[in-house]
Backbone:
């Protein structure tokens, strides 16, 4: 779906979009809340946690695997292989991860297709069949939803918490009034986008952008993270401003390729931030804010760890 145009893209999109409608996500909110509660159940004031490992990674992994019917015993390994797809250090790691995920999901889909049932995966496959997707297309879409459904949300949560900790006035404002968190998400996404560079595009015609001529068929890299700091669209772009209208950010993409899972990612980040700030309002960084290690990734931007002291 990421690398296709209509009409092929339209068929895939028609199946994916209903999975993440506002209404569907509203139904999922109690489940997301339970997952957050479970992950925080052992947290106590004065203890140290790694927000990435203890919350930002397992939350979206659990939710998207639940949506796709991935057995609990397989989720940790599958999440690790999914993360490896974004590695920028070793092509062998990427190839191995790609083969693992493809083989695993093909077996999972084949088993579900051969066994009648009413679980989440069976429901997904029925929607694929009704949408005209064949077996390989169904596997491909499941892989995309799995990978895109958690890696970027993990970085969204980690980046947002770090941005707030580095801006005490903004943090205090949300801490005193958590109802403002949903409205702050766009600015947090704009300020530190979890997607720094989009997947490859190719020009379908000769283009001229600014002073640059781009011939047809030319590979193009688009940098949403840079676009989100464009001063022509966002004045004083390097400043986190919760009063800003940041709805034009490109963290979720744009047009027909805008991320269909955006409502789910927003709900997960909102519930995670709200719960953290309500239960542990004075939480602070355990280590100095700079430097904090980031993943070496081809596409995404996110922290490898975010050590916090709960308070």
Residues:
């Amino acid at each position: 779906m990421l690398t296709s145009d209509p009409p092929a893209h339209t068929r895939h999109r028609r199946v994916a979009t209903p999975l993440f409608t506002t209404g569907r996500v509203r139904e999922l909110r109690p489940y997301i809340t339970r997952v957050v509660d479970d992950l925080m159940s052992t947290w106590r004031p004065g203890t140290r946690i790694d927000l990435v490992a203890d919350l930002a990674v397992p939350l979206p992994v659990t939710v998207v695997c639940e949506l796709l019917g991935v057995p609990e015993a397989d989720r940790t390994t599958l999440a690790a292989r999914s993360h490896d797809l974004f590695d920028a250090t070793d092509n062998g790691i990427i190839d191995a991860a790609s083969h693992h995920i493809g083989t695993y999901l093909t077996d999972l889909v084949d088993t579900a297709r051969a066994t009648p049932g009413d679980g989440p995966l069976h429901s997904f496959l029925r929607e694929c069949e009704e949408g005209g997707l064949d077996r390989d297309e169904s596997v491909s879409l499941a892989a995309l939803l799995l990978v895109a459904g958690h890696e970027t949300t993990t970085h969204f949560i980690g980046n947002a918490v770090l941005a707030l900790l580095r801006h005490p006035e903004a943090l205090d404002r949300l801490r005193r009034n958590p109802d403002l968190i949903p409205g702050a998400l766009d600015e947090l996404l704009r300020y530190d986008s979890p997607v720094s560079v989009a997947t490859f595009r190719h020009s379908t015609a000769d283009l001229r952008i600014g002073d640059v001529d781009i011939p047809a068929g030319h590979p193009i890299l688009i940098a949403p993270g840079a676009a989100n700091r464009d001063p022509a669209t966002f004045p004083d772009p390097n400043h986190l401003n919760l009063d800003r209208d940041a709805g034009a950010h490109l963290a979720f993409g744009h047009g027909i390729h805008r991320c269909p899972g955006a409502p789910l990612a927003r709900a997960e980040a909102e519930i995670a931030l709200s719960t953290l700030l309500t239960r542990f309002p004075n939480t602070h960084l355990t280590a100095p804010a700079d430097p904090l290690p980031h993943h070496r990734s081809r596409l995404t931007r996110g922290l490898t760890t975010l050590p916090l002291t709960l308070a």
